[in-house]
Design a protein that fits this description.
The complex is a heterodimer of chains A (about 240) and B (about 575).
Chain A: H1 3-6, E1 10-11, H2 20-25, H3 31-42, H4 50-61, H5 67-80, H6 95-105, H7 110-128, H8 137-147, H9 161-178, H10 181-187, H11 202-208, H12 214-219
Helix pairs in contact in A: 5-6, 5-9, 6-9, 7-9
Chain B: E1 4-15, H1 19-30, E2 34-38, E3 90-91, H2 126-130, H3 140-154, H4 179-190, E4 196-197, H5 232-242, E5 246-250, E6 253-260, E7 266-273, E8 279-289, H6 293-302, E9 327-334, E10 355-357, E11 372-378, H7 408-416, E12 420-427, E13 436-444, E14 450-455, H8 460-479, E15 483-484, E16 533-535, H9 550-569
Parallel strand pairs in B: 1-2, 1-8, 2-5, 3-14, 8-16
Antiparallel strand pairs in B: 4-10, 6-7, 7-8, 9-12, 9-15, 10-11, 11-12, 13-14
Helix pairs in contact in B: 1-5, 1-9, 3-9, 4-8
Classes of the chains: A mainly alpha (about 240), B alpha/beta (about 575).
Chain lengths: ~240, ~575
């Protein structure tokens, strides 16, 4: 894929096994070693191809919003989702950077965002004689109250620009928050980490009024035997 | 420019490194043959930390997982999607086909759903069963020994249920159902729709010391770094190399055509190197096409010579015809009893369904001849771009107003997290000669190779089947006490039937058969016209089933490989 790699166009037999680190770890597999190996090996990358990295660098080299606009985005974001202990809010979650990036990554979003920011200041100047970012919280809320409800019977793109803008900014703010480290902690999502799935906890089953069928569970994996190599009889019955 | 020709003569050249090509590589190299694998994309190893997306956090990326660069989201391990830069395809006006191409070692097996279903006895005998399509020249009993070996070599979880057309196998034990899957089981029971454990090629239990065991991150679509799911590179090609096989891999090498001699026999392939944009030639005794149903058809059609003026293997004019994909329609519902969930535990599970519904209906009483299975999704997944974009949009189903801002958004997000269940119906379409791909002489890709033009329309059978899917989904959602999201698509929208190609199960373009006038290969996947060319991808399928095609591609590729070894030994080819 990159130039150096393509020189290896011919990859001879035996040389192609994975990185020793991860490969070894699955021999003496346990959750800790796998976890460590992956974290140690991959902290600098997030799996982009050279072409994809190039595009990200290009996007980062461009600027969509000026400093004032970035501050306005930040001040609107914390009205939409006020920070709350212990998991912070949109600023800790990097929401303004996400808005800047997505406005360039998906250029169709840019006019709505740029136009909406202008509308915010115009509205705030007209009503309160100050730019949106400098208005009081009560004044900001007064402006937001007018544009935060969309008509669910009409397609969004047929509604006024400021309504579309607020919908987009709310979406980016909530998305940005819950896809951040603090937001994931707030949500309580426990996944994306090596573990051994062994069914829904009893208290959760009880809460939702469901139960496992013992006959079904009897067919499921016995996690204490997961590292024992599978063997079958000639009829397909698992022996190990 | 002179074409650069290598002097080495391989025993076999394999074009493509996905499910079919990977299996042929493993079997032929294990038999001691000298094999060259020619792959259009770059090298890829799921264990390479540089390209790995497994276990990434959404905030590792400035776009938080958005699908701007990769159609299925930026963690999806497919380099190439519906579009590949510089490699267009065209359509006959008024028809539609979506073509997914993964340009990388291992191809689409790096991101696929791992749903690994055997075809049943009825699936090989469609015409006998209901008069539609054609029978295969082989039956389940011919393929069963290979399915059995495949289960043990690759590993697939599931259960032996004794169902007539969903054969038993050698299964690893399945994972326990997740919460939403328990709701599905209960909901389906009320409509007498069967539900059984899923059948997916992920290692819930160790099968050897070279591959890891599943650690339940739910991210098989990102390709597993410990090789606990099936990908053709990690499970077939690397092991073939590791055990000392003679396997040379040519990556970034786009095959243009199969070359032939004066007698019309294949002598090898010519390919364009993407690195220097020059044309090269490789020679071999046997050429095996595994480039995917449509790409292999393209190569054959582009391999015109004095001996094969209509393209290689195309004296029947059948190459490219009978193209068909699985049907697909979907629906989702919010289940009030799944709202306000505890997030106290990790329920990622495996990267796919722990339970599913195989086809249960009696088609003789329905207005469509073939069935479908239901795939189920839901649960508390990893938040990525788009999560909470409309954080309380579901308020409208509960008499509340969507929109607003402030602290209440946090409550809304948590209230609805994990409360939606979705269904995908995946069914069998009938193969028609009128649905096809052909060479578009007006358009070439950036390597100067003429591209494919698609001509594919759904028939009433598929549309009627999609209606049945929608009615079933509505009933299931109702059974679970849920509320359907979105309006049920009606006749004007073909009941939500997805465009051909979108399920990425395209098959049939070089179908097998006993009659050289109506088929491209014989029952051992050898071209009728040229005895040293074989096809081991889904092109040889006479019909799709209400199953996914990968497990059958691999079983058949293994069977064809055994035949190639035998024929080479007997010096017949």
């Amino acid at each position: 894929m990159d130039r150096r790699k393509s020189l290896q166009t011919l990859i001879l037999g035996g040389a192609a096994a994975g990185t020793g680190l991860v490969f070894n770890s699955c021999r003496t597999e346990n959750a800790e070693t796998i976890d460590e190996a992956i974290i140690a090996g991959s902290d600098k990358y997030f799996g982009r191809t050279p072409e994809e990295l190039e595009r990200i660098e290009k996007i980062n080299a461009e600027q969509l919003f000026n400093e004032h606009e970035m501050e306005t985005i930040a001040s609107l974001a914390i009205v939409i989702l006020p920070p709350k202990e212990p998991h912070g809010g949109p600023i800790e979650a990097g929401v303004p950077d996400l808005v800047e990036f997505m406005g360039k990554d998906i250029p169709e979003m840019a006019p709505t965002l740029l136009g909406g920011l202008m509308w915010l200041d115009h509205k705030s100047n007209t009503e309160f004689g100050t730019e949106f970012k400098s208005a009081t919280l009560e004044q900001k809320k007064q402006i937001c109250d007018e544009i935060c409800w969309h008509d669910i019977e009409i397609p969004l793109e047929k509604q006024p620009l400021e309504i579309q803008f607020f919908y987009m900014m709310r979406g980016l703010t909530v998305t940005g928050y819950y896809t951040s480290e603090v937001g994931i902690a707030e949500l309580g999502y426990k996944g994306n980490s090596p573990n051994v799935w062994d069914g829904v906890p009893q208290d959760v089953l009880d809460q939702h009024g469901v139960a496992y069928d013992p006959a079904w569970i009897a067919k499921c994996v016995d996690q204490s035997q997961r590292n024992v190599i599978a063997e079958w009889d000639e009829n397909g019955n698992l022996l190990t | 420019m002179q074409i650069k020709e290598s002097s080495e003569i391989y025993d076999v050249i394999i074009v493509g490194s996905g499910a079919g090509g990977g299996m042929a590589t493993k079997q032929l190299a294990d038999a001691g043959l000298n094999v060259a694998v020619v792959e259009a994309g770059p090298y890829f190893d799921p264990a390479d930390p540089k390209t790995m997306t497994q276990l990434k956090q959404p905030y590792d990326s400035p776009r938080r997982g958005a699908g701007t660069d990769r159609a299925f989201g930026e963690w999806d391990m497919s380099w190439g999607d519906w579009e590949v830069e510089g490699e267009p395809y065209t359509h006959e006006e008024g028809t539609d086909f979506k073509w997914w191409r993964a340009r990388m070692l291992g191809g689409r097996t790096n991101h696929w759903g791992r749903i690994s279903l055997r075809f049943g006895p009825k699936d090989f005998k469609g015409k006998t069963r209901d008069g539609h399509g054609d029978d295969w020249p082989i039956g389940y009993e011919d393929v069963k020994p290979y399915y059995d070996k495949l289960d043990k070599l690759i590993g697939v979880f599931g259960t032996n249920e004794g169902r007539e057309n969903d054969p038993d196998g050698f299964f690893l034990p399945p994972p326990k159902p997740r919460l939403h899957e328990l709701f599905y089981i209960n909901g389906a029971k009320k409509s007498n729709i069967p539900v059984i454990p899923g059948r997916l090629s992920m290692l819930t239990k160790r099968i050897n010391n070279d591959r890891g065991v599943c650690f339940y991150c739910g991210q098989c679509s990102r390709s597993c770094s410990v090789y606990a799911d099936f990908s053709a590179g990690s499970c077939l090609i690397f092991p073939a190399q590791k055990s000392g096989g003679k396997v040379k891999i040519f990556v970034n090498s786009m095959v243009r055509e199969i070359t032939t001699n004066d007698e019309g026999k294949a002598t090898g392939v010519s390919y364009i190197s993407k690195d220097d944009r020059k044309e090269y030639k490789l020679k071999a005794k046997v050429v095996v096409l595994a480039a995917s149903a449509c790409s292999s058809a393209r190569i054959l059609l582009n391999s015109k010579s004095k001996q094969h003026p209509n393209g290689l293997g195309n004296s029947s004019n059948i190459v490219g015809k009978y193209l068909h994909d699985s049907t697909g329609a979907s629906a989702a519902g919010v289940i009030p009893d799944l709202m306000n969930r505890k997030t106290s535990y990790n329920e990622d599970g495996v990267g796919g369904m722990h339970v599913y519904s195989p086809w249960w209906g009696d088609n003789s009483k329905l207005n469509f001849p073939r069935g479908y299975h239901i795939e189920v999704w839901g649960g508390m997944g990893q938040p990525n771009y788009g999560f909470g974009f409309d954080p309380n949009g579901m308020n409208k189903y509960f008499g509340l107003k969507p929109g607003g801002y402030g602290d209440s958004l946090r409550d809304d997000v948590k209230k609805y997290y994990g409360s939606v269940i979705g269904f995908g119906g995946r069914g069998e379409a009938i193969a028609f000669k009128e649905n096809y791909c052909e060479i578009d002489p007006t358009t070439v890709d950036k390597f100067g190779i003429p591209v494919l033009k698609f001509n594919y329309k759904h028939s009433e059978f598929e549309i009627n089947q999609a209606k049945h899917m929608q009615d079933t989904f509505e009933e299931l959602i109702h059974n679970m006490g849920g509320i359907p999201l979105n309006e049920k698509p009606g006749k004007d929208k073909d009941y939500g039937l997805l465009a051909p190609g979108q399920i990425i199960h395209e098959v049939g373009t070089t179908r097998m058969g006993n009659d050289p006038k109506t088929s491209v290969t014989n029952k051992f996947q050898q071209l009728h016209d040229v005895d040293n060319v074989f096809i081991v991808d889904a092109g040889v399928f006479v019909s799709q089933a209400d199953k996914n095609c990968t497990w059958t591609i691999m079983a058949l590729s293994w069977r064809a490989s055994d035949y190639i070894i035998e024929q080479l030994k007997a010096q017949n080819i």
